[in-house]
Amino acid sequence: MRAGSEGAAVLSLLAAAVSAVLVHEAGHLLAARVLGIPLRRGSGGLFGVRLTFDFSRAGYGREALVHLAGPTAGLLSSLAAVWLFGEAGLWFGGISAALAVFNLLPVGGSDGGGALGCLLWALVPPGSSFAPWVPRILKGADLAVRGALWMLSLRLALTGEPNVGLLLFGLGMAAGMA
Fold first, then answer.
1. Is 19 left (phi over 0), alpha (psi -120 to 50) or beta?
2. Dihedrals φ, ψ of 162, to 5°?
């Protein structure tokens, strides 16, 4: 591959990744707006965008819908990109689908973790004897998923070609378990 085409590929990849993140976050914003849930704050960083909504009067069902709206927007836009643009839509479609699936994992700080928390709290009456178990279940799910991803990334890094990305991913998963 020539240097010029490598640069174009990197730019295409970055454009696809940024677009996928924007579609994901737009899904959250649209759902919150439709449901009347105000945005408290938004911030961006190295690992993406973080939106904070005021769920104080939303109820668990409406909060779960906002959590699930980002991954849903990502999956739908992924399918649309591939359907409309064929091979040209694969980069965006693949990144958007991967972002959606990753965000649906039931780990703390993810959309899947937020939706699982809403489901559990909706099922457990306040003050019941099961209430103390909800944070434990959420933490257990978090540790199980992070541990499995860490072991998978470590196995792939050690048995395949050396891959710095997988090693960093594994370290990130391990750090999240602390």
1. alpha
2. -55, 135
Asked if residues 108 and 138 have their Cβ atoms less than 8 Å apart, the reply is yes
* CB neighbours of residue 70 within 10 Å: 27
Phi, psi angle pair for 47, to nearest 5°: -105, 20
Same domain, 167 and 92: no
Helix boundaries (H) for the chain: 3-35, 60-85, 90-103, 111-123, 133-159, 164-177
- Predicted confidence (pLDDT) per residue in 77-124, tens digit: 999 999 999 988 999 999 999 999 999 999 988 999 999 999 999 999
Residue 105 lies in domain: 1-123
Residue with tokens 């849903």: 72
Let me know whether 51 and 62 are in one domain: yes
Owner of token pair 């370290």: 171
146: amino acid identity, one letter: R
Kindly state whether residues 143 and 70 are assigned to the same domain: no
Task: In whole angstroms, give the CA distance from residue 23 to residue 30.
Answer: 10
CA 73/CA 51 separation, integer angstroms: 15
Gap between the Cα atoms of 103 and 160, Å rounded? 26
